[in-house]
Amino acid sequence: MMAWRGARGSGGFMVRAVYVGLTCGVLLGLFLYPTDLQRQEEQGDLLQPLLFLALVLCSMSLYFVVSLMDPGYVEHDEEEKEPVSDEKEAMSSQETLNLRLRRCGYCLLKQPMRARHCQACRHCVRRYDHHCPWIYNCVGERNHPFFVAYLAVQLVVLLWALPVAWSGLDFEHPSWAWFQYNLLLLLSFLVVAVFTVVMILLLGCHLYLASHNTTTWEFMSRHRISYLRDCEVENPFDRGIFLNLWQFFCTCRLIAWETLYPEVGGHTV
Ligand SMILES: [Zn+2]
Ligand SMILES: [Zn+2]
């Protein structure tokens, strides 16, 4: 069941309002000016305009899902609440848990392996990836697949919006009056172009990370993370691209990563 425990507060409201405002502004630009979508709408050919709006609604819904849901907050010590995991059941007989999980210095809970405390959310987050200011929430074990899905749908919307915005711009007689008249469409085009580049980079990075079963935090800070720095293999959680992607997108349950860890050194992770 999906828990709605994402970061809240006036900051979150402001960020989400900016997102909704930008989306509505771009939509106005695309439908108020003589773009391809507006022409199709006026001719009664509603298939593409409606499909475009449905995709926009889908991307907005995914945005609010990743922004408001629980990213994977650690609520209890592991001894008090055992995480449910097929892998854990499979490995329980092997007695691999000679690892001491460290206690968070802020919320004083035992951190499952791959969890990290987020200062902005004031929680430890399981399989912490990063705190995203755009969604005003952490990206963690629970909402990371939805985050990637959001990036993908948003990118499709942007790649469609880019030529549509361009189709409404007529550069034959550019003048100050032309500039003033087309200002909203020009701004829409610029916003769409910038976000398209950002989304391509973000989606590429996160698909790479997911396919290697690693996180932004682990990728950037390997030298600071004891369970990676002291491990004999480069990535102890990597099970191959297909299994990694399957686990990432198709496993709803939380995973006890420490049970998959090959090291039995008895040291603190
Ligand atoms: Zn903490
Ligand atoms: Zn956070």
TrEMBL record:
It is found in: Endomembrane system. GO terms for biological process: gamma-aminobutyric acid receptor clustering; gephyrin clustering involved in postsynaptic density assembly; negative regulation of NLRP3 inflammasome complex assembly; positive regulation of synaptic transmission, GABAergic; protein targeting to lysosome involved in chaperone-mediated autophagy; protein targeting to membrane; synaptic transmission, GABAergic. Keywords: Acyltransferase, Lipoprotein, Membrane, Palmitate, Transferase, Transmembrane, Transmembrane helix. Its main location: membrane. The chain crosses the membrane at residues 12-34, 46-66, 146-166, 186-210. It comes from the Eukaryota. The keyword Phosphoprotein does not apply. Residues 102-221 form the Palmitoyltransferase DHHC domain. InterPro entries: Palmitoyltrfase_DHHC, PFA4/ZDH16/20/ERF2-like. It holds the Pfam family DHHC. Its EC number is 2.3.1.225. It is a multi-pass membrane protein. The keyword Cell cycle does not apply. It catalyses: L-cysteinyl-[protein] + hexadecanoyl-CoA = S-hexadecanoyl-L-cysteinyl-[protein] + CoA. Belongs to the DHHC palmitoyltransferase family. PANTHER family: PALMITOYLTRANSFERASE ZDHHC12 (PTHR22883:SF301), ZINC FINGER DHHC DOMAIN CONTAINING PROTEIN (PTHR22883). This is Palmitoyltransferase. It comes from Podarcis muralis. The gene is ZDHHC12.
